[in-house]
């Protein structure tokens, strides 16, 4: 992870996103932010706070509860040359935007043979904290990874959060930026000057020789916590954050797997037909005939998200459960070793009201 | 009421052009040279022509899969439209759009959609952007009464009125969503009332009179352009042919011959032809036939796109 260079200060993930948006709004008068609550006193966890005061009410504004038309509004504004950022406080609401994103936004460039394009950013925030239940905690990145014409980013660090937001705003295609509430408080070194992440560029967050753990969004944090647990039994894990899910940097992941011979993908969603399935398959296609490897998909348990904490604790992958399953992938018998619990501070310390 | 000869000529020329283009599509369709589902506007041309006669080149148009008429009425390029229907390289989208996704930025017709109602909200964003730029242009969006079944119509109307956006909503009410009658889809068929519920001034033009449509659109366009916020027009009309494809459809029995005959009797094409002198009519007809012949030739001669072009423009 690149840190500390050229004007880097420590910012939270939320502050990094906010800074990216403010800088892009200063740079380009066509950039505007809209969505339910973006100009309210809480300012979308602070990421859009006071933008309406700084840039005016026509560049940061509230909307009716009309996700379908409001997505189409963004598509039309983007076609007309603006750079809209549509914000959703919970990713679950993207189901109401699906038609406009899949049937319209993703197709306009193609159906016009390049005559029009849709530089629309959709910010989708995963709501996990406690008690968000079945409809306020979901992550749908795999649905959008499936669709040609859409791009999907899922930064896990403050540095990448800023770079991804700027890249998404500057890109001429519809980009879904998946954010995670439980990452918002994470702090890291973020350069002050604007910079754009590269689409299709994964990041190796920790090097290792025995197993490659590809972790998505908040699961990067849990995978980094699982790493020392694995080290206790002599397994050295390489942690790769894809950052960009579509396009996907298969090369960096495959290179790591070629070295380690083991691939575990820890997703912040269900495993079935998910990002993990895609990553395992893509790496297999890249390496087949050259390097055999064993593989594992981890993700939410295959149920809707339960609300009560004891069941949530079983539902979500944790450092402990990741370590145990990766150890098994590496041939350690279940009886050989019991992983310790490591407290997920951002989860344990979360307080409401919601 | 009398109308000036230049207006009659202009409107007739557009009606005739659209009618004859689609009749040619009907003629050619059995050869399978057009491998793209066509939704013909034959019978509905007066709405497109009457409304678009009030739009300028800078005004923006969004439409539906039944889009040949509005595209041509907006000043579309027939050569490139026909080549698009043929799936050829010189088509509007080099074969990637076909009939259902006609669009042409040069003509101000941004796009059409095969998913009912989905261009409605795009008009919001486009109108917002035009206003931000201080443009005098407006956005006109065509849709069928079927789109008013969709939730997105209501979301769109609400936001357009809330933000007083420069949009003219034009509902082509041909009463049928494929073969489902509007009375089987709405408890009370009062489309204007739906728009008015969102405080959008609305007018219904019954009977398909092109001069009435044109006059109502002129008033509405002027109000929208003057910054008065959105306006809504319901234009009653009738498609003469099947929902999709070139055929007639009376034999399948969902509508009556008498109903269709009453609309055929009010055909605006024939009406305006009768208002013109023979010389003017013959001149226009000849020009239209020549343009169509050129366009068919253009489409026939254009090559099919190369296989590698399939991968172009998925992303910019």
What does the model show?
Chain A is α/β, with parallel strands linked by helices and 354 residues long. Chain A has 2 domains: 12-191, Thiamin diphosphate (ThDP)-binding fold, Pyr/PP domains (Rossmann fold, 3-Layer(aba) Sandwich); 203-332 and 343-348, Rossmann fold. Helices cover 35% and strands 20% of the residues of chain A. Chain A is built from 13 helices and 14 strands. Chain A has helices spanning 13-27, 51-55, 67-79, 98-105, 108-111, 141-145, 158-170, 219-232, 250-260, 275-287, 309-315, 319-329, 345-348, and strands at 8-12, 31-34, 60-61, 83-88, 121-126, 151-153, 175-180, 187-191, 203-206, 211-215, 237-241, 244-246, 262-270, 294-300. In chain A, the strands form 3 sheets. A 7-stranded mixed beta sheet of chain A has the order 3-2-4-5-7-6-12, sandwiched between helices. A 5-stranded mixed beta sheet of chain A has the order 9-11-10-13-14, with helices on both faces. A two-stranded antiparallel ribbon of chain A has the order 1-8. In chain A, helix 1 runs parallel beside helix 7 (158-170), helix 8 (219-232) packs across helix 12 and helix 9 crosses helix 10 (275-287). Chain A is globular and about 60 Å long. The model of chain A has no long low-confidence stretch (mean pLDDT 96). Chain B has one domain: 3-Layer(aba) Sandwich (Rossmann fold). In chain B, the strands form 2 sheets. Chain B has a 6-stranded parallel beta sheet with strand order 2-1-3-4-8-7, sandwiched between helices. Chain B has a two-stranded antiparallel ribbon with strand order 5-6. The termini of chain B are far apart. Chain B is globular and about 50 Å long. Chain B is built from 11 helices and 8 strands. Chain B is α/β, with parallel strands linked by helices and 316 residues long. The interface between A and B is large, with 40 and 41 residues.
